[in-house]
Amino acid sequence: MTAAAHHSADSGPAVRHDTSRPLRDLAKAAAHRHRSGKHRQEDDPGEERLPHPPASHIPDPVVQSSPGGPSAPSTGSNFEGIGASNYSITGVPPDPNAAVGSSQIVETVNTAYAVYSKTGTTVLAPTNTSTLWSGFGGSCQSTNDGDAVVRWDTLASRWVVTQFANVSSSSGPYYECMAVSTSADATGSYNRYAYQFSSFPDYPKLSVWPDAYYITYNMFTPSGTFLNAEVCAMNRANMLTGAAATQQCFTTSSAYGGLLGSDLDGSTAPPSGEPELLVGLGTTSTTLAYWKFHVDWSTPANSTFTGPSTLTVASYTTACGSSGTCVPQSGTSQQLDSLSDRLMYRLAYRNFGDHESLVVNHAVTAGSSVGVRWYELRLSGGTPTVYQQGTYAPDSTYRWMGSIAEDKAGNIALGYSQSSSSVHPSIRYTGRLAGDSLGTMTQGEVTAITGGGSQTTYSRWGDYTSMAVDPADDCTFWYTNEYEPANGNFNWHTRIAAFTLPNCGSTAANDFSVSVSPASGSVTAGSFSSTTVSTAVTAGSAQSVNLTASGLPTGATATFNPTSVTAGSSSTLTVATSSSTPAGTYSITITGTGASATHTTTYSLTVNSTSGGGITNGGFETGSLSGWTSAGTTSAVSTGAHTGTYAARDGSTSPTNGNSSVAQTFTAPTGTSTLSFYYNVTCPDTITYDWATATLKDNTTGTTSTVLAKACVPSSGWLQKTASVTAGHSYTLTMISHDDNYTGDATYARYDDVTLS
User: Fold this and answer.
1) Is residue 62 classed as helix, strand or coil in its secondary structure?
2) How confident is the model over 671-721, as pLDDT tens digits?
3) What are the phi and psi torsion angles at 300 (to 5°)?
4) pLDDT-derived band of residue 516, with 50, 70 and 90 as boundaries?
5) Measured by CB atoms within 10 angstroms of the end CB, which terminus of the chain is less buried, N or C?
6) In the 8-state DSSP scheme, what is residue 626?
7) What span, in angstroms and rounded, lies between the C-alpha atoms of 357 and 266?
8) Distance between CA atoms of 314 and 420, rounded to whole angstroms?
9) Cis omega before residue 346 (within 30°)?
10) Rounded to 5 degrees, what are φ and ψ at 198?
11) Contact 393, 401 (CB under 8 A)
């Protein structure tokens, strides 16, 4: 029943696997077999428009409307990739993608694969991607259907290449073909696998994580109807050795598409056991959505896929309205597709030791044109928060089809396509340094190549581009995108350009980390909170580190004692609030600036009002949720309250998806020791899929208790729950209803009369 909405029947073993001969031999044999001749040229009929949020009612509040400073990325290699000059083009779009290894670069386009040196020398000439599966048998060998993706597994020094197969079939089965190299040589042999799907697994996006290779898909019926997003984990450990391997797959509801999985950059793995984080556009103009995928290969039944949870971001409107197509080009009336209905590949992850960071982007409306909205998310216990965000739109030209990544110093690079009614589509990139003002691309914009023409007939302009980081120095960015050398359609070229941002290379000699303990505090407005800021030498010699704080609430000040330390020493941070400081929880950024590096960490400060604490609007008799923070589908309802007129309702009488909750942070006043509330749950399903629950976090001690264990009954009636509290401590009460969005068994919970006594 409802299990089908989450766990996918596509889970199971690879239907075929083997180890290939060296790719250089397979490619040589394929070259002898193929004869030159005309190929049918065609436009790829996908991508269907995915579910995406409605337009914002306000202009984008984080637009960067002016360019960065005079300093610009330092350009290195810049050479031609796969294109009309070296490969027989049979369709559009090219979907360029590249990965960088210890000594080679591998590029894929929709149906071809090539290997280069880092100076641009061709190591293996462009050849059909299906050549990787020569002798494998089945559809992976016999079709060359495209949507290929290549990644470098930094932890294993291996190449991973994927391509789907048999997608022209009207009934399936469909396949995802995967190849994992047996060495760091991209022209060597590969462990090859075919995983089977019952529905069309479109737009596959590969990510590398220690416990699995993850691929996200947009699932369609053979007739082209969108079903849902699906994510599959493939047994990485077995695939690295060529052993038999399985996949475990889960789906979202039909409200979500275009998910991306966290994709590891750098040689530092995430904390042991940390689940794969997946992110997509939310259902409102102020949200992203995220999921956590924990895979258990020993006991698959213990694998979990939780979400969606909501991440609040600055308001945005996806680019180009309902069609997604509005990007102008010089010399033609043909407009290009912005593909604004999804996040753009990759969701690049990096573990800096003192913090975990992810960056991602998508195309949004920026005034009268289109810009690139980008985010840096940071993880705490595997849960993301928005550290910084901005929309790069420094002038009226259109920027879209972005890709973003971070180097080992925390510098961020952003590449994209750029076009206008007076400029042919071109390839550009920019960036920012780790210590720069948040939310801004501070580097100048660089053009890798200016297009000599426009695409004159088709709207499809790639489905993604590629920003990769060179593992040899963890500083050099390699950006891959497409351009037209002259007006036309099936004459596209791709370009591969390398560049670096200032100060990255110097971090290896002398480096340090910054951390705080405790990581959070709670105060009443007018008082202060303190924490210890610790530094440690992570490379080379100790250096002087200057400490500053930003993100303070109104009326608050921060002091460090001392303000500067030698790496390895600590300082005391004191945040003093005033009586006018608004109540709320604030993320304060602590920045340590040294001669060779800059690092940051965060301190969470909860400010409580001076009214003595207590619950605000605990009976919901304002007729609203004032005083409460809500997520998902929530409302104050006037039917069936416990007492009075109103109660809070999490969820709806119609099916909803995931968690809906109301939460409030409060301080337990003097003389109180007990929290109580009433709940009334309506849950026609079983506790496996739907439930009500409530938690109470003591922000002072950092401990969380479950006040209401998961409950699911058709109609509970009003019941009371209580919990002990300590006067003077700050708490966060969260009351939740979880519904799996299954038609016919809508689950919701009412809460009322939240009191302290």
Assistant:
1) coil
2) 889 999 999 999 999 999 999 999 999 999 889 999 999 999 988 888 999
3) -55, -30
4) confident
5) C
6) T
7) 12
8) 26
9) yes
10) -85, -30
11) no
CA–CA gap between residue 364 and residue 595 (Å, rounded)? 37
Place of tokens 């073993």: 13
Nearest 5°: the CA angle 48, 49, 50 is 110
β-pairing, 748-756 vs 657-667, is: unpaired
Burial class (CB in 10 A: 0-12, 13-18, 19+), 626: exposed
User: Of 102-111, 283-292, 565-574, 635-644, which gets the smallest average pLDDT?
Assistant: 635-644
Q: How many beta carbons lie within 10 A of that of residue 174, not counting itself?
A: 26
Cβ-in-10-Å burial (0-12, 13-18, 19+) of 336 comes to buried
- What confidence score (pLDDT) does residue 626 get? 87
Residue 408 in contact with residue 507, Cβ under 8 Å?
yes
Q: Do 414 and 404 contact (CB within 8 A), yes or no?
A: yes
Place of tokens 């705080």: 516
Taking a C-beta distance cutoff of 8 angstroms, is the pair 62, 366 a contact?
no
For 184, which DSSP code?
A: S
Sheet containing 703-711: give its strands across: 629-631, 657-667, 730-740, 691-698, 703-711
Pick from 425, 413, 586: nearest CA to 504: 413
Rounded Cα distance between 491 and 456, Å, is: 11
Identify any residues that bridge with 327 across adjacent strands, giving them in sequence order. 336
- Per the CB < 8 A criterion, the answer to whether 665 and 652 are in contact is no
Return the structure tokens found at 535. Answer: 């530094």
213, two tokens: 């290779």
The residues facing 636 across adjacent strands are 648
User: How does DSSP classify residue 622?
Assistant: T
591: its two tokens:
């920045």
> Hey, what are 354's tokens?
């003192």
- What is the maximal distance between C-alpha atoms in the chain? 88
Buried b or exposed e, range 366-389, using 16+ CB within 10 angstroms: beebbbbbbbbbbbeebebeebbb
608 vs 534, 558, 603, 666, CA distance in Å? Answer: 27, 18, 16, 7
**pLDDT surpassing 50 at residue 632:** yes
One-letter identity of residue 654? S
3-state helix/strand/coil string of 668-699: CCCCCCEEEEEEEEECCCCCCCCEEEEEEEEC
Distance CA 742, CA 676 (A): 32
E strand or H helix at 378: strand 369-380
Tell me the three state secondary structure of residue 370. Answer: strand
C-alpha span between 550 and 529 (Å, rounded):
15
d(CA 123, CA 106): 10
- Residues sharing a CB contact under 8 Å with residue 32, sequence separation 6 or more, in sequence order: none
* DSSP H or E run through 29: helix 23-33
Give the residue among 358, 360, 318 at the shortest CA–CA distance from 339: 318
**What residues form DSSP beta bridges with 608?**
524
- Cα-to-chain-centroid distance, residue 211: 18
- Burial per residue of 204-242, b for 16 or more beta-carbon CB atoms within 10 angstroms, e otherwise: bbbbbbbbbbbbbbbbbeeeeebbbbbbbbbbbebbbeb
C-alpha to C-alpha distances, 229 to 43, 66, 113, 219, 700, nearest whole angstrom: 24, 37, 27, 6, 39
